[in-house]
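Pilot study result, target chain (394 residues):
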Amino acid sequence: MAMGGKAPEAMAIMWTLTAVTWIFVVLRTYTRALIVRQFGADDYVFVLSGFMLLFYSIFLQVSAGYGFGQPVLALELDDAVRAVEWEMIGQTFAVIGMATAKVSLGLFLLRIVVEAWQKVVLWIASGATLVVSVIVAVLFWTQCLPPRALYDPRVKGTCSFGIAPFSLLLGVTCIVADFFFAAFPLVFIWKLNMKQKEKITIAASLSLGVIAGAAGIVRTVSLSGIASMNYTEDTVPLIIWSAVELAVTMICAGIPVLRPLYRRVTGAFSTAASKSASSNGGYYKHGAGNDTRSTNINLQDLSSSKDEGGAGGRGGKGDFSDANPKLGLRGTTTVTYIKGDNHSDEEILGWEFRQGQRENGIQIREHVDVRVERKESRSRGQDQRDKASVEEMV
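Predicted structure:
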């Protein structure tokens, strides 16, 4: 049957949230797997959460086809039973998804923190949310035996307890976790050795968790709908706000990780400007995502003295008396000096991470290769030309 009642509006909201969330899933996967090349546990859990939201929307869409969003008394009995059944399946994915999204956020923060007590607190917050969610999901389907007696009045069964108190416990746990993950980064983020811009990006994005917490409050208030006789219509607010909480949590966890992608995109635009500027008297290295000429490469000759024969330091017979032994080079050469910081693609992980936790995150590798090529002069008095190249790999 066609959707009716509150279903069209509810499904439009859910699919919009799902689409926006999956944009972050795709961008984060691309960033971590192809740009940073460090796809970790938090990324896997993040993708899993995206599928939880996707399945949630799919099953609610199926339920809407049978009557979700409409008064139950206006539905045929078979349609009402199927609508409730598919809605309950979708709610199960939402319950687990809200937990996995918060676990992903906790695992991301574990990449940044360095103190033991901070790690313990994050593990407790993430683990408690996951345990409560799994327990509620199991109890949701075992409160009545057989489970079909939950949504089909034609099936006789025994109900041992009600799910409402456990759903309330889950709602409170998720609310506390949302506000915790929004506030906790403010405790340590300003002390990390990273750029102020990165600190503000992380703090601002994670602070959006306050919105998820607010959605959790509204969702918890809407729990009364699960005990209503008009289940297909009265649970609409619960369904919508569960999707909002899950989507906002994932967006909070996705924004900070996209910093390397932002650098690459903005760098593509500024590279053209840098090349244009270099043709007007300067040779510039791109400065990590801005259009300024802040990182200048100066080329300086180490020596320009000439030997007694007039051929100069570049044209002798192999006796390079003016060579600089400290550089390990023989003969007059050209060395490239690079001024400015060497920005990695993911400075948000901080100095502590790069020094002590390389196995879990970004590793920075720099390779400087100086090659000196000596050409014999083809005519008398012609100077030898040296070539030097510098390659930087991050």
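One observation from the pilot: The two ends are 57 Å apart (CA to CA). A full batch analysis is planned for the follow-on phase.
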